[in-house]
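so my prof wants the structure for this chain in the tokens format not the other one, which i didnt know existed until like an hour ago. anyway here's the sequence
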Amino acid sequence: MSITGKWVRSWQTKGSDYVQYNLIVEVKNVGTGWAEIGNGDWTLYAKDESVLDTGNFSYAFPRYLAPGKTGYLADSGLSDEFKLKEVGRLDADGSYDTIDADEVVVLKTSKIKNKRDSYDGSWSTTGVVSNPTGEDIDSVHVGAFYLDSKGRPLGFSYTNLVDNLRAGKGKGFETLGDTPAIKSGAVAKTVVYASPSY
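here's what i got, hopefully its the right format
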């Protein structure tokens, strides 16, 4: 697995003392077999290279990555311990395990529709997640990534609230989570992943 991009999207809502941020790392499976992405760790640096915050990625989308395919590690947070103008670069690493193709669970998403909040400009996504396998899945998480015309993530939203996805069935979802204010015309493509939660 190779890291092919790192992005910090930080913002501050008017009247708030908190700096909010999306941290997004693009990863690519450069091997010849399937990989199960693990949640790596991250460091958020200030422009003067001092450390603002550290943590572990909360999400890996998708959980299973085919050879040659890309996915994302993602996290979000907020802090009143530094100022927006201080936010610098993101450093991160990830981990993976090899996994046999017959153990991989690939879920499908469809009917994707984005919504932009008229108050703060944040984004969310609705759609249907489908389970084409012969096994019921207890819980599914979904992540939506909003990309610009050059394929760079502008922000992401997510949900862990899709439960009891039956074999051969579909279920509606809506992603939540804070994103930066993104202008409607800025999003050229939305990529949505769904994976079982274990």
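also thought this was worth mentioning. The radius of gyration is 17 Å.
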